[in-house]
Structure of 17beta-estradiol 17-dehydrogenase:
Amino acid sequence: MWDPLRALGALTAAWLLLRVAWGVGRLVYVYLLPWACRGDSWIRAQGAWAVVTGATGGIGRAYAHQRSRRGLNIVLISRDMNKLEKEAKEIERLHGTDTRVIQADFTGGLEIYGAIEEGLKGLDIGVLVNNVGMSYSSHFRKLLDCENPAQRLSDIVNCNVMSVVQMTRIVLPQMVSRHRGITVNVSSMTENHPWPFFATYSATKAFVQRFSAAVGAEYLSEGVTVQTVSPGVVSTNVSKHPKTGLVVKDPQDWTEQAVHTLGLSSHASGCLSHEVQHSLGIRTVETADIFQGKSLGQEVT
């Protein structure tokens, strides 16, 4: 005889099994079936140019090289003109594609975006990668313990949040008018939970994920693809270049896998290792670093 409690238990077990099956199936589809991936021709068909913010280091640099290697011209946007020019020459030398550079400090407010908008005029932009980001510049600390908290918190919000919103606002209209285009917004696994001693950074990344999901839903029917990628630990300036391995990924390796998820998932961790960590709710080595007082670097590349 089935009493209500047994029925509830059976339904709960069935629901949990379905969730597990769905999760495993999604992992296989997004990361382990290479023939399911959209080809380079699909990405090139979105437009001749890719725009990458924070393009002179870490994930942004990897995205710029990855896209140019597959035939797209690249607009590099960052705050250091010397690094921009060096990276542009390197891309042209290695991949033979055209480049443009725009100098911008994304810790600034609305006033910086006029020059960016002017620099992008007339370009057939198929891919926008909103990558630039920053956090506290020294050790993990309580919110008010960072140096000059008023300025620092403003810089983080402008760099991590304002940049995504304004760059989307600039590039999206032409994508909508052409009924094609891809926007990739780089978030972080920290978007999933509140992170003590990491409060502002994790909150801004939660915004990026929610914003991306909403805008993606709004413009899906217009032919625009919006994807959030939320990596775990990648060996960059932000993470102080930890040793790479199963948990910590190299930017080039991570980006190579992340690009293959385009068109398959609107929200991905970028690589199989980080997706498994996300699915299991593992907070990776960053948690240990917080409580050991290790430093976190600032990255506004």
Notes: The chain has two domains: 7-36, 39-292. The longest strand covers residues 73-78. Confidence is low (pLDDT under 50) at residues 285-301. The CA atoms of residues 101 and 204 lie 26 Å apart.
